[in-house]
Amino acid sequence: MSKIDFNTIPEGILLQEVANAKEVNWVNSHMTDAKSGLSGVSLTMADIEDAERRLERFASYIQVVFPETKENNGLIESPLTYIPIMQGCLEGNYDTEIMGKLYLKQDSHLAISGSIKARGGIYEVLKQAETLAIANGLLQETDDYAILAEDRFKEFFSGYKIQVGSTGNLGLSIGIMSACLGFEVIVHMSADAKQWKKDLLRQKGATVVEYDDDYSKAVKEGRDSSDADPKSHFVDDENSVTLFLGYAVAAKRLQKQFVEQNIVIDETHPLFVYIPCGVGGAPGGVTFGLKQVFGDNVHIFFIEPTQAPCMLVGMASEMNHEVSVQDFGLTGQTEADGLAVGRASGFVGGVMKPLLSGICTLEDKHLYDLMRDIVATQNIFLEPSACASFWGPVQLGKCQPYLDYVRNHNLGNVMENAIHIPWATGGNLVPEETRKEYMVKHLN
Ligand SMILES: *Cc1c(COP(=O)(O)O)cnc(C)c1O
């Protein structure tokens, strides 16, 4: 049962629908112009560039330990793919019109851990390694970081621990990268975490602690365990600025890809980006970066499952992380394991308030249909959480609140030039057996 009084909170009518687990399309009335929105955030472009340079310092090491990154010179980056057949398929299946061109940002195919967490998660582990090595006189910023692959570094890092709470993919990124450097790594996993992710982590040398509870519990246990140990670093998915900046670098990389593919983003060529949201760190970091780079010419929407719309309930009610989806009588349970979060990050919710265009929700049953569609049309496999991203362009083209959004931003006559990017957040590491199960799964 919901314990909310819908008569007294902001957006009460919409939130009543949310509490009834109905699909909604919310527009954020607090969004301002990018410049004033960003001026209220303590982080800046210089912070993103600092993160970008750190990743460049590590590129020579990454190439050595993950040879699959060689063709990208040790940068962990994903393809931007034009998907016109999927565009037609979505228009036909969901009776919508996607004006402009549909592309896919394939973070599902990021090297090392096959999800968007290979941005923030790996970045935070690398930063921790660099900090420790420099503080102990083993490394200088001007060194060739390939030396980090030497045994003496592994031995050094084995005296330190890294811990994280996760529904799965963050754990995979942190676990794989930490174990590779030599850290002792403990991943605290919620009940939603898929078995194959736990198995893979153990195989990579991480310790997996399982909880018969949700994501918030796994994070709390991880944080408590780490705080009690001075040699342990906790990767805090709810509050970490480091993670956030690792995600934000994506925007600068995307800018380069646009140049390579002759894609122009400006006042008459708007960019629409749709990102599945869990606790908010990954989509929030990417959004912050995109707003820094593309300003008012980018419009960003998050997508959440109807049973776990934590960022929506926090932002629309203006109660931020003071409220959880359980307060609204929802379960927090979803087939989209990467999005199975009951309470959003307060830090990210605050940063998003003047920057985010809106949030829409979808029922789990669509996830598998969309998964089959993207395989059938473009032969790209994505995990269920990532498929939520397609709901954005579907709704933008047909629902009244978003048609109004387009009109209110004077975009009506430039939509034929629009670039739409559903952000495919994960999938490449899903084992063949699990893929087969997903491909024949139908929910009512
Ligand atoms: C983590 C994740 C997200 C959302 O990221 P948050 O930081 O939790 O909001 C979306 N999709 C996939 C596949 C993920 O692993």
How would you sum up this structure in a few lines?
By secondary structure, the chain is α/β, with parallel strands linked by helices. The chain folds into two domains: 276 residues, Rossmann fold; 126 residues, Rossmann fold, CATH 3.40.50.1100. It is built from 18 helices and eleven strands.
**Fraction in beta strands:** 5-15%
Structural class: alpha/beta
Q: How would you characterize the largest beta sheet?
A: 7 strands, mixed
Uncertain residue segments: none
Tell me the name of the CATH class of the largest domain: Alpha Beta
Spatial ordering of strands, largest sheet: 1-10-9-8-11-3-2
* Radius of gyration based on Cα positions: 21 Å
CATH architecture of the largest domain: 3-Layer(aba) Sandwich
Number-wise, the strands total 11
- Tell me, rounded to a whole number, the average pLDDT: 96
* Proportion in helices: 40-55%
Draw up the topology in text:
Blueprint: H1 12-19, E1 25-27, H2 34-39, H3 45-65, E2 80-82, H4 84-94, E3 101-106, H5 117-135, H6 151-157, E4 161-166, H7 169-181, E5 184-189, H8 195-203, E6 207-210, H9 215-227, E7 232-235, H10 241-260, E8 271-276, H11 281-294, E9 298-305, H12 310-317, H13 346-352, E10 358-362, H14 365-378, H15 384-387, H16 391-396, H17 400-408, E11 419-424, H18 432-439
The protein binds pyridoxal-5'-phosphate.
In words, what does this structure look like?
- With 444 residues, the chain is of the alpha/beta class.
- The chain contains 18 helices and 11 strands.
- The chain has helices at 12-19, 34-39, 45-65, 84-94, 117-135, 151-157, 169-181, 195-203, 215-227, 241-260, 281-294, 310-317, 346-352, 365-378, 384-387, 391-396, 400-408, 432-439, and strands spanning 25-27, 80-82, 101-106, 161-166, 184-189, 207-210, 232-235, 271-276, 298-305, 358-362, 419-424.
- A 7-stranded mixed beta sheet has the order 1-10-9-8-11-3-2, with helices on both faces.
- Helix 11 (281-294) links the parallel strand 8 and strand 9 (298-305).
- The longest helix is centred in the first third of the chain and has 21 residues, at 45-65.
- The site of pyridoxal-5'-phosphate has 20 residues, from helix 11 and helix 15.
